[in-house]
């Protein structure tokens, strides 16, 4: 069983509280980044900066629970993706938010196979158009 299956089978607290059952979140974010030729960014950026393909710009604030537990990714120093992991949202809501800002959102085959809270939060990668398909971690696909 992978960690998503264990969580869905009722072992979520065991998985979340026992680091020997799973690599750290940071390690998994780095692995996801590596699969997509990206690096995890320490600096955040907003949807408009991602859309416009800029390194810096006016930060637009978005008061929405859809952008929860976010992780930023860059490629060659440029913003390329935002991983959103919200509670209580639907894939369609994030697809609509992304489209409204001229961006694309992709979810793994198992949409609740998030890194932040497997089984509890959605997992969607928001990218600029032309990014291509996201390569997901094995446990997000199986």
Question: What report would you give on this structure?
Answer:
With 142 residues, the chain is an alpha+beta fold. Helix content is 32%, strand content 16%. It contains 5 helices and 5 strands, in the order ααβαββαββα. The chain has helices spanning 3-17, 25-35, 47-52, 91-100, 138-141; strands at 39-40, 71-75, 78-84, 103-106, 124-128. A 5-stranded antiparallel sheet has the order 1-2-3-5-4. A hairpin with a 2-residue loop joins strand 2 (71-75) and strand 3. 33% of the residues are buried. The model is unreliable at 10-21 (pLDDT under 50).
Walk me through the topology.
Layout: H1 3-17, H2 25-35, E1 39-40, H3 47-52, E2 71-75, E3 78-84, H4 91-100, E4 103-106, E5 124-128, H5 138-141
Antiparallel strand pairs: 1-2, 2-3, 3-5, 4-5
- The poorly predicted ranges are 10-21
Question: Can you count the beta strands?
Answer: 5
The number of helical segments is 5
Biggest pleated sheet: 5 strands, antiparallel
Mean pLDDT: 83
Measured distance between first and last alpha carbons: 10 Å
User: What is the oligomeric state here?
Assistant: single chain
Count of separate structural domains: 1
- Measured as a percent range, the helix fraction is 25-40%
What order do the SSEs take from the amino end to the carboxyl end, as H and E? HHEHEEHEEH
